[in-house]
Specification:
Elements (H helix, E strand, L loop, with lengths): L1 H9 L5 H29 L6 H8 L3 H9 L1
């Protein structure tokens, strides 16, 4: 915030739209780089199984549920 205040105070009023456009472009670039980094991080830790295999393995069988309830 102090940097933003200093920039606004240092620039004349007719240059403020250009400052806002420049800051918006810099923020868009930073967001794109951050999202790309998150996408790469996610892709490096995905499982090699298909979603159907993961879902099937997560569902317990009725016999397992009965055994669990009996215990």
């Amino acid at each position: 915030m102090p940097v933003a205040g200093a920039l606004v105070a240092a620039l004349p009023a007719d240059r403020l739209p250009a400052l806002l456009l420049t800051c918006s472009a810099a923020q868009a670039l930073a967001m794109a780089l951050a999202l790309r980094g998150l996408w790469r991080y996610r892709a490096s830790y995905t499982a090699s199984h298909t979603p159907a295999q993961q879902t099937a393995a997560a569902k317990p069988s009725p016999a397992a549920l009965t055994a669990r309830d009996a215990a």
